[in-house]
Design a protein that fits this description.
This protein has a domain of about 90 residues: Jelly Rolls (Sandwich), CATH 2.60.120.10. The strands form 3 sheets. Strands 1-2-3-10-5-8 form a 6-stranded antiparallel sheet. Strands 7-6-9 form a 3-stranded antiparallel sheet, with no helix packed on it. Strand 1 and strand 2 form a beta hairpin. It contains 1 helix and 11 strands, in the order E-E-H-E-E-E-E-E-E-E-E-E. The longest helix is centred in the N-terminal third of the chain and has 4 residues. By secondary structure, the protein is an all-beta fold. It starts with 15 loop residues before the first strand and ends in an 11-residue tail after the last strand.
Length: about 140
């Protein structure tokens, strides 16, 4: 019986989906689109004034590269810590760390490239019942 050899897959920009986190994602590399086994890679756009719901990714780490715009992110226990990310910045989010990214701009979207060790992308998302701290002071 012949075995199928893995091959490269091109995913053309075709559509978006609304994630459990409350943001819009471009369908990038995942188990569903490319047969990925250990990662996903997608583009997220946070519209002006937009924000995710508090969440974490069970047993999966994430990396974010900010392509354009600026985002704030609350993270850690009870979302007590904060960082600002600007175009050209990278951020690492360890597995199981609560976080809430948002766009404080009233006019400019924030676009980021997100990689995660979960090939199914949305399976590891766990929404959290944590109060949204709002927009951080600069």
């Amino acid at each position: 019986m012949p075995t199928t050899q893995p091959t490269c897959v091109l995913i053309s920009k075709s559509g978006t989906y609304h994630g459990k986190q409350g943001l819009e994602y471009f369908n990038g590399v995942s188990s569903e689109t490319a047969g990925a086994q250990a990662l996903c890679l997608h583009v997220v756009t946070i519209p002006p004034g937009g924000r995710a719901k508090p969440h974490l990714h069970e047993n999966h780490e994430s990396a974010v590269y900010v392509i354009s715009g600026e985002a704030g992110m609350w993270y850690g226990e009870s979302l007590r810590q904060h960082m600002w990310m600007r175009a050209g910045d990278f951020a690492h989010i360890p597995p199981n760390v609560p976080h809430l990214p948002y766009n404080a701009s009233e006019t400019i979207p924030c676009v980021g490239l997100v990689a995660r060790t979960d090939p199914n992308e949305q399976e590891s998302v766990t929404l959290l019942n944590i109060a949204d701290p709002g927009v951080a002071e600069r």
